[in-house]
Amino acid sequence: MYVAVKGGEAAIANAHRLLADRRRGDRSLPAIGIDQIVAQLALAVDRVMAEASLYDRTLAALAVRQSRGDMIEAIFLLRAYRTTLPRFGYSKPVDTARMKIERRVSATYKDLPGGQLLGPTFDYTHRLLDPSLLTDEAVEEPTLREAETGRVMRVSEILAQEGLIEGDGEMPEDHEIGDLTREPMEFPMTRDLRLQALARGDEGFLLALGYSTQRGYGRNHPFTGEIRIGEVEVEFDVPELGFAVSLGTIQLTECQMVNQFKGSSKAPPQFTRGYGLVFGQSERKAMSMSLVDRALRAEELGEDITAPAQDEEFVISHADNVQSTGFVEHLKLPHYVDFQAELDLVRRMRNEFEANRIGGDDTIKEAAE
Predict the structure, then answer these.
(1) Sequential DSSP letters for 83-146
(2) How far apart are CA 31 and CA 265, in angstroms?
(3) Are 34 and 64 within 8 A, CB to CB?
(4) Cα–Cα distance between 293 and 91 in angstroms, integer?
(5) What is the spatial distance between Cα 263 and Cα 322, in angstroms, rounded to a whole number?
């Protein structure tokens, strides 16, 4: 329990005013607008939506502005807002094969059915500061082509035609999909709940774990089967109507990693999958998620659990940045009573130590005499 100090309320109120002042910054400059954040800081907005588990660009941009660009604080704000919203039901599973694709690349097949589509990416840029961005210079219009329509084959389907890759994550018929926002976290988890936790997990944490699996801490030997970014339709079953209605479209990033598997007593040698699906354009997050997803399937595939990324309880318990931030940052708040108790204990222990040391010296002197 934290003890309020005298005058603390006035200090906190002024700290809030100071925060608002710093947020606004130089009054001679125009205030940044929500529409500017949505349009020009889109990747920051996408991360906030993904890790807050709420798809709303305007609210995510508001959180970015309110937090002064502190991404985890923005995620915290948006997730707190999400808890106030009513729930009407569950949408139907989205069909990413029918995605209106903006970007689609594969590191396993050069010639894909439907072709590779680079889209907007940093992959081929030189990591050099661009002085032209210091001013609002004109931007050249990109070359566009007609959007792909209909179903676009996945890379995993090419491998599946030869029976070289495991099935696409089928669940038992009587399995009910879990809901991490409504159910307490319990271990061991089913894969659907694990993927929910990873989807809202901290990008940096998952990136570090994914990298560790590539360096040998998790038996991952991955190939990027496919990354696709685009818009998918979200549908909702309305019982009164007897059919599904469209709620609109959302942008998603999907990643399927193809991993080696030597086989076991139950399964032949084949490729296995790691899967990532994230709101917005979030390639790094989707790739990291798919690497960690595959690592967490170690027990399912009969592999030894030898690395942190394979330890479900370790990964899931520490992936949530809101929970992690709260536990770390609470150390800034008053712990006066606790510390005074520790201080008193250390003083008494030191006094006892000194007394024993002096008594020991006297014993040594007597023995010498």
Answers:
(1) TTS-----BPPP-GGG-EEEEEE-SS-SS-TT--B--S-STTS-----GGGGTT---PPPP--P
(2) 64
(3) no
(4) 23
(5) 38
- In the chain, the largest separation of any two C-alpha atoms, in whole Å, equals 102
Q: For helices 57-66 and 42-52, what crossing angle results, to 10°?
A: 100
Measuring CA to CA, how many Å separate 368 from each of 76, 128, 357, 361, 362? 68, 75, 17, 11, 10
Residue 17 in tokens:
């005013």
The reported pTM is 0.90
In contact, 79 and 59? CB cutoff 8 Å: no
Structure tokens at 368: 């010498």
Confidence of residue 1 (pLDDT cuts 50, 70, 90): very low
Residues 293-322 have pLDDT tens digits of: 999 999 988 889 999 999 999 999 999 999
| pLDDT, tens digit, 9 for 90 and up, residues 42-65 | 999 999 999 999 999 999 999 999
DSSP structure class, residue 30: P
Distances in Å between the Cα of 42 and the Cα atoms of 35, 46, 181 are 10, 6, 26
Q: How many residues are there in the chain?
A: 369
Residues 352, 356, 362, 366, Cα dihedral to 10°: 150
Phi, psi values for residue 253, rounded to 5°: -115, 125
